[in-house]
Amino acid sequence: MIQFVRLSKGHIPITIVALLVIGNTVWHRFIPDNLLFLHNIYPLLYLFPVVLAGLYYGRIGGAVTAFAVAVLSIPHFMYLLHSDPAYLYKSFFEIVLYFVIGITIGHVADTMRKEQLEKQQLLDEFRITERGSTLSEIAHIISHELKTPLSSISGAVDLIAGDDATEDKKHYRDIIHKELSRMNNLISGTLRTFHENKIEKRPVTLATFFDEIRTLFSVMYASSSVTLEIALQTKIKTVRVAHELFREAFLNLIDTAADASQGDGSVLVVIRDDGEHIDFLVKDSGSGMDAAVLRNIFTPFYTTKSYGTGLGTTITKRIVELHGGSIACTSTPGKGTEFLIRIPLREIV
Fold it and tell me: How far apart, in Å, are the Cα atoms of 220 and each of 176, 196, 223, 224, 271?
């Protein structure tokens, strides 16, 4: 029975169950009255479609099939009412038995399917947790390996553009130091995020934050024709976020959206609120994703590209959750993809 339950419902179409019921009913009509052993076998044959329906369609399937058998047996009951009332009671008992067996088998099948689904969900959660643990270890390794060359670059810049350097060189030296410091803080912050599961929030002006995003996008996609549109549709001016991490989350999503749009495509970012939540929508003009890709969009290391790590959306999801919010992704093949970040106002304002 376990093997039957594990098969999908499509393996045994409902038409086969119907044919078994109807076939047995028609066949019984042509059994000669003198072949009593066949008349005794015929009620047992109804058990096959009842049991199959219970296995593949649950309690409802078993009950509906038993009801169909009862309806098709009405002419036979009418015949017995006049010819053999004693046998009529036996037939009524058999109908009740069909309902009991169909519903019981269906209940067992439904329970087993539910348990299998729960086990699969637990297994999926375990895999995600396991990958998350691996991600934490990788973050630690990357952090350790990157900090050394960053320090070396900083030292080399000081040697190249020392105190006797021209003002222009000093200016560029300061820019390099600033960016190296930002990278170092981002690496440390990301590592702390994965290890300690906590963030430090500070007030950030939405207009300034997204001006910064717009500037970074123009640099990242200077050679691309993909455009970025940001629409601030909220009266909220300031939010409390972990600035570096929050920016990293948006850059990950915008980068994914821009990569999907390509050509003369566009990326739309909308910020709005409903009085209880603030929503950040990132929408691309790409070709969308199929169900398999969408199902794994936040799975660590999952990617359909020949490049990349498959960690961008995973890290973004983690950052959003640490801000007390949630992120969802919807996609329609041929119409593009949308990421929606939703954070309660009490967590961010």
Answer: 17, 31, 8, 9, 22
- What tens digit of pLDDT does each residue of 106-139 get? 888 888 888 888 887 777 666 655 555 555 666 6
Rounded CA-CA distance 209/246 in Å is 10
The whole-number average pLDDT for the span 47-51 is: 85
333 or 41: whose pLDDT is higher?
Answer: 333
| Residue 343 identity | I
Count of positions (residues) in the chain = 349
The answer to whether the beta carbons of residues 348 and 319 sit under 8 Å apart is no
Asked if residue 333 lies in contact with residue 284, where contact means CB atoms within 8 angstroms, the answer is no
The span from the CA of 267 to the CA of 15, in Å, is 48
Distances (CA, A) of 168 to 163, 164, 174: 12, 11, 10
How many other β-carbons are positioned within 10 Å of the β-carbon of residue 239? 22
- Residue 159 predicted with pLDDT over 90: no
Q: Which CA distances in Å does 126 have to 28, 80, 321, 325?
A: 54, 60, 18, 22
